[in-house]
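Replying to the earlier thread about multi-chain prediction with a worked example.

Input:
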Amino acid sequence: MHPAPSVIIFTTLSGLGFGLFAFLGLGLPDVSGWVAFVFFAMAYALSCTGLLASTFHLGNPRNAIYAFSQWRSSWLSREGIMAVATLLTFAPVAIGRVFLDMELALLGAIGSVFAVLTVFTTSMIYTQLKTIARWHMPLTPVLFLLYAGAGGALLAGQASLAGVLTLIVTGAQLLAWKQGDGRSTTGDLGAATGLGEIGQVRLLESAHTARNYILDEMAFQVGRKHVQKLRMIATLCVGALPALLLLALPAGHLTALIAVVLHVIGVAASRWLFFAQAEHVVASYYGR
Amino acid sequence: MSKASQFYFDTSPPVSDEVRKTTCYMCACRCGINVHMKDGQVAYIEGNRDHPVNKGVLCGKGSSGIMQHYAPSRLRAPLKRVGPRGSGEFEEISWDEALDIAAGWLEPLRKTDPSKLAFFTGRDQSQSFTSWFAQAYGTPNYAAHGGFCSVNMAAAGIYTMGGAFWEFGQPDWDRTKLFMLFGVAEDHDSNPIKIGLGKLKERGAKVIGVNPIRSGYNAIADEWVGITPGTDGLFILALVHELMAAGKVDLNYLCRYTNAGFIVNEDPNSPERGLFLRGKSGKPQVLARETGILMDYDCPAITPDLAGQFVEEGVTHRTVFQLMADRYLSPDYAPEAVEARTGVPATRIKSIAAELARVAFEEEIVIDQPWTDWKGERHDKMIGRPVSFHSMRGISAHSNGFQTCRALHVLQILLGSVEVPGGFRFKPPYPKPPEAHPRPHAGVTPGQPLDGPHLGYPLGPEHLLLDDEGRAKRIDKAFTWENPMSAHGLMHMVISNAHAGDPYKIDTLFMYMANMAWNSTMNTSEVMRMLTDKGEDGEYVIPRIIYSDAYSSEMVAYADLILPDTTYLERHDCISLLDRPICEADGAADAIRWPVVEPDRDVRGFQTVLLQLGAKLGLPGFVCDEGWPKYEDYADYIVNHERRPGVGPLAGFRGEDGTGDGRGDPNPAQIDRYIENGGFWVSHVPDEATFYKPWNKGYQEWAVARGLFDAEAPYVFNLYVEPMRKFQLAAEGHGAVQPPEHLRERVRRTMDPLPIWYEPFEDGNIDTDEFPIHALTQRPMHMYHSWGTQNAWLRQITGKNSLYLPTKLWDAHGFEEGDYAVVTSAHGSITVPVAHQAGLNENTVWTWNAIGKRKGAWALDEGASEAGEGFLLNHLIHELQPPKGDGLRWANSDPVTGQAAWFDLRVKIEKAVPKPAESQPAHPPIKSPVGKGPAKVARKI
Amino acid sequence: MTCLPSSTQKKLGLVIDLDTCVGCHGCVTACKGWNTQNYGVPLSDIDPYGADPQGTFLNRVFSYEVQPEGKSAQTVHFPKSCLHCEDAPCVTVCPTGASYKREEDGIVLVNEDRCIGCGLCAWSCAYGARELDRDAGVMKKCTLCVDRIYNENLPEEDRVPACVRTCPSGARHFGNLGDPNSDVSKLVADRGGFDLMPEQGTRPVNKYLPPRPKDEMDVPALKPVATEASGFLGWLDKALGRIPGKGDRLPTKETVQETVQESEKV
Ligand SMILES: Nc1nc2c(c(=O)[nH]1)N[C@H]1C(S)=C(S)[C@@H](COP(=O)(O)OP(=O)(O)OC[C@H]3O[C@@H](n4cnc5c(=O)[nH]c(N)nc54)[C@H](O)[C@@H]3O)O[C@H]1N2
Ligand SMILES: Nc1nc2c(c(=O)[nH]1)N[C@H]1C(S)=C(S)[C@@H](COP(=O)(O)OP(=O)(O)OC[C@H]3O[C@@H](n4cnc5c(=O)[nH]c(N)nc54)[C@H](O)[C@@H]3O)O[C@H]1N2
Ligand code: SF4
Ligand code: SF4
Ligand code: SF4
Ligand code: SF4
Ligand code: SF4
Ligand SMILES: [Mo]
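Result:
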């Protein structure tokens, strides 16, 4: 799939944002006033920037209001609803904590559940797609949730938890890559065309020599070397280095900041790979 | 209806305000179209269901005609060259000025030497009109593009049986059970062939495709014969060998309808050796089987004895059929003898021959339809041999193409499958034997019309167009010993001959609708040089060039004066029976185009311009007695011009009341009647005349009544072409007109009156070990030569081309996707992208024709892929063969007709390392006289 | 509505005959032409005359090569448009309800007035049948020419999709695949019509007819009538004797004289 910046930013930032919300809803860290403001502002900023970025992916955002209508069947619709619900739920919680020194614990907990559900619905947008075998597996939502968890913990200043979670998510990511690599679907033109029974099938001429949406969007190809490099970066940045910083060094704002920055770079790299490496079955019709 | 949960929209919207029915011209197939108009604009084009050609369907080009109509490449006004030739720098001028310039050039030439004008037209469909202009002007130098296209096919068909495939005839798609297709990618009969193949598929009939390349029609063939290019003649004659040896020929048919029984003079000492024995009447003789005496071949109620021999003065004269047996039963034509050369295993050849015989003779079909033959004999049935054939440039665009086409016709005739149910059927006004066509003329008198039509079918050396010194009278050297039967002229030789001043220099080259500076020429770079070359006096070697195009093609840049044409939806045209008609086997038909919209630019239909020019020059026929223009415009001409009394450009709705079918006085309302009728006219062949047309009394009478010809003219098919033997006799030293020494042997060898095969000339002239690979082009079904590229939809489908390589070559050179190859012929070299195709003859490479474009042409961006990656094979093909041992260079053409031998090309390839930035050769951009196209099209009307 | 109807009254769709399609692209441009002027926004072309043209098409024709064991490779032209799946994932993923499947005939459509151009439906389609129009930003797909097939402004015989009407070789068939007695259903049954990527679970309505077996001709060679030239002449003589019908109409003296008789050589 085409690794569009908008979707990478969206999934990266909103994952972090809603992950942070999940912790904030549970009162972690236990702060109030301006400190709480900073945390909530961060959570809102991340999730809203992410959501906003996702709208750049839309060809026709004018109709966006309808996107909340199809919760009965559409994970994207559900995600929209959950995201808004989460953001709304946290408004009183945040106002309470920042300005009124008031703890709406139950609402906070509900918010946390909503935040987790938001991340889950996001993950299900991808997981549901049978056309992309690399996404269509149980590990995908787990991975999204773990990423949100690790990122949230990091941002929420839960250093040791974050350290552990970043390591777990790294492990899960390695597993997901391994599973994904074994599920490559492209290239089986015989099956795609139904002509396989006659013999080996190959593309002679693509339908058009010009570009098209399907090719641009769904037949993105990335070099093996590039993948290796990015996987290395992701592995180191998502988990190994932050964990090292957090678990081996004494806690501090600077180490936390460095850990966060590294982690975000790692997540972005892994998300780039998530999209770029996702092979859509349709590519086989194009001989890719 | 939509439930609440679903959306409401109108499933029955108005389609258009009005439908205007005219004729497509995205190619020369000429399908009927319904042009849907909205707010006076062209909105949507679909096929006309009532039309005889396409019956409602349209191809990829036709369906996107709207994009040609709105193309930004359309010329806008007459242009006068202001920069050097080839630069593309022009200024727009008025029509008055343009016509003044043209007349100013042409008038003095006509008074002094009309042959200094060469007027050639390309993919034109008004040849009966343009030739009429050229004849009235008085130049011998006129032809259309047939010489580089497919004259081998046309001429071989006319000389053999009075018509070829293509516009002349078609398989009996409704009844044929076995169909063999030789060397066709698309053909002119685009939609009819597709409709026909569809019918075969629906019935599960078998299709055999003979083609080095398995694409298009060959992709759906049940059997694919991936023959070696240039060897079809051998393959066909091996089929003939098998069929004759097994006695699987239709003897009854051969006796009745062919010259199989004609007695050939075999007296070795006679100057008429090889000609038919003739009786007092002058008619060829046959031995009547019933009486054993020699009789005129057309004597009623006799059967010629094919096995008979006529002995006189100790010389035995035999029949054509026995000469054929002599030749084709020889082991030289046995499948085993040809398998290596053709690349077709002997067992496969035998299998195909057996299947042809089985279907022809065991699956005979009988129609209960009585008919009367030319000798007055009544038959109560029509007997059909349901095998049929179709073929085009794959066999004709070779230097042995004429003979190969002949061989195929002979095969059809031996099987008795021409003009019978299930076989091949002529389309009126064909069949028409060579005798019924005119002879070529080149009699020039300054200030006067030519002494007769330019083109025709010579019946012997006396019809060649040579002056007293034996020099060519025509600039293209048509009808000379180099190509005696060049029935369509040789457009591909005009520029190089004019540049060389051989046979003479010309002053003005006037061309219409032919992209001669690019894809329609051989050796493109060299032709561009010739067009821009200057003599010592600083003047262009070809002093003046006038050109009519509708679009900003490559050729435009090379002309001095441009006469911009309209698009096909903006003008009157006439698809005439006098010309290249649109008939179907079951009926005579013709059609018009008419301006369904008026042009929004300062352009004029070319035919109207030619009438205006002719009137300005005062040409006979173009002005009335008082000197005024006789015709207001082309529409006026179409309606009021008469070729022969009662016969004009359009055959339908003639006479004051419009009831005249074929013949009748001009009808002032004729065009309106055509428009009412959907833009066309058909007159159906009566049931008893549907088959056996050359010998069917009913058909002959019907055709005469419609003015297709003036008197009934039944004839028999020429298995043996006597006129060819006349040329051969001259080469053997007989008669007043004989070939020059250097051509004697070639004429003797190639003008064989019975089909032969000889190796393509290029094979004999170059080292085939060095150049082992055959290189071909094919037409994409959705592109018409260079026109398609200006169409934004079509250029997305094919906006660049690759050279396809068979697996053997692909692997041997270690090619990978995205690689380029250097392709070299004896004449030049190109560097081009490659691709792999397994379904390809293992010694053949190919590419799509005419995708490559010159930078700056067609209102495209200079970075267009057509100009960067796209390429032409034409750079590798020369109009002359490399020098022979004696230093002479023969034309790269068929020695009989002069047809350009595009497909004889031999090349070698190697991987291009490093890969070039773009295909080579890369020519510098030309300036666009029309600017560039818009950045976006989303046109809803 | 993005929930799929539990059943549809008809299953309108196309049957495409891979044994007959010659790859002419007629259906491609006919589709483009009709759908540019009709349902929804026009199908745009960006940079149409430039270096990098790209436009929206609802139907495209691919060419594949199939290499059977020990035989020549075959070429198959392969038109592809929306298959109007019964279990269309493109419908259920749509967040706005713009994508829907019609209950009356099973046609899958996009309501452009609702579409946000998120592209998810295209992602969910295994067949590449949906293209986001780059100019309008809304999702385009084959409409099965819903504005033709019921269109009372068209003559009845023209109430078929534009691609079907134009296909010169008759490789495209339109009808109700929900009715086992329809022509299309019978064709599918006779010729072994198949689904594309059945493992996707989409249950396409459109069917493809497979190419018929190729290069199988194996007819025994003909037997020669004679092995030498004289034998051939003998056969010829005998065979001519069997030609029916003339013996009773031998020329009389008069008819012979009327024409020309024995030749005096000229
Ligand atoms: N390598 C290779 N070269 C070949 C061939 C091949 O097989 N291989 N085939 C050869 C053959 S058979 C042919 S026929 C030629 C064809 O070659 P051409 O006849 O030259 O064909 P086009 O390229 O279509 O050029 C025709 C010109 O007519 C113009 N035109 C289009 N419509 C109109 C109109 O309405 N009015 C006017 N006035 N002009 C119009 C176009 O813009 C174009 O410039 O190519 C030959 N070239
Ligand atoms: N769409 C479209 N239609 C066209 C045209 C166009 O440009 N586009 N051009 C029109 C014109 S001007 C013409 S002349 C006709 C030509 O119509 P076609 O005769 O169909 O022309 P080509 O595309 O040149 O195809 C030649 C075919 O012959 C095959 N071939 C080459 N050499 C040999 C050989 O030695 N033996 C055999 N058996 N096959 C061989 C090639 O592989 C190719 O398939 O098409 C007309 N129709
Ligand atoms: S074959 Fe196609 S382009 Fe040619 S006239 Fe017919 S519809 Fe037009
Ligand atoms: S083919 Fe694709 S777009 Fe069409 S219904 Fe099926 S899944 Fe949806
Ligand atoms: S692109 Fe339009 S139709 Fe497709 S899922 Fe998004 S909103 Fe629905
Ligand atoms: S049914 Fe209509 S919309 Fe669908 S591919 Fe055919 S022409 Fe295009
Ligand atoms: S129009 Fe018919 S033959 Fe042509 S590509 Fe489409 S389906 Fe195939
Ligand atoms: Mo041609």
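The two ends of chain C are 93 Å apart (CA to CA).

Feel free to reuse this layout for your own posts.
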